[in-house]
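Colleagues,

Please find the record for the two-part complex below.
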Amino acid sequence: NAGVTQTPKFQVLKTGQSMTLQCAQDMNHEYMSWYRQDPGMGLRLIHYSVGAGITDQGEVPNGYNVSRSTTEDFPLRLLSAAPSQTSVYFCATIGQYYEQYFGPGTRLTVT
Amino acid sequence: AQRVTQPEKLLSVFKGAPVELKCNYSYSGSPELFWYVQYSRQRLQLLLRHISRESIKGFTADLNKGETSFHLKKPFAQEEDSAMYYCALISTQGGSEKLVFGKGTKLTVNP
């Protein structure tokens, strides 16, 4: 079992560029979520999904889109990258007892 | 609104000393609380959850409903305990569960 995987590990974008952060899980968990981690801000929820075809906004959704066409995949799209989106992004699933399983993270820099 | 507060951004102790990482929460129902740990440049991992009343790596946490606290304790800190620690609460909004994280405490255990 790979658990939760994320690609890429690192990415540098220029302001205005778009890109998709990939997240995949092989644990058959219905619930998936995206967080960003910034110094002094902790983890903030961007978007989440309770199952295929269902997504909802978290605490900081602006500038990001998500879709959930399959149980396994939950990509995060940056529509027009801004320096304020420089962060480390974590994808996570929730297990049977509400424990979260995190991916290894994507470190994004927007210049 | 549900909230998790970790009052200390940084905590530094010496090896062998007791350590307590504070966590306070606000929640209207019966909370489900967790501690997550993130070692340097690694993904977050579940450390323990209050419902299982377990001790992991020597750490324990007791839920105190009167004080709305879930402090993480270890009697003798080790250098390998140096990490970021996040307290988290399951929040139910609109029928779906979300984890609400505190901003984290960076623990440094000095030799």
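The CA atoms of residues 91 and 98 of chain B lie 5 Å apart.

Comments are welcome before we finalize the supplementary table.
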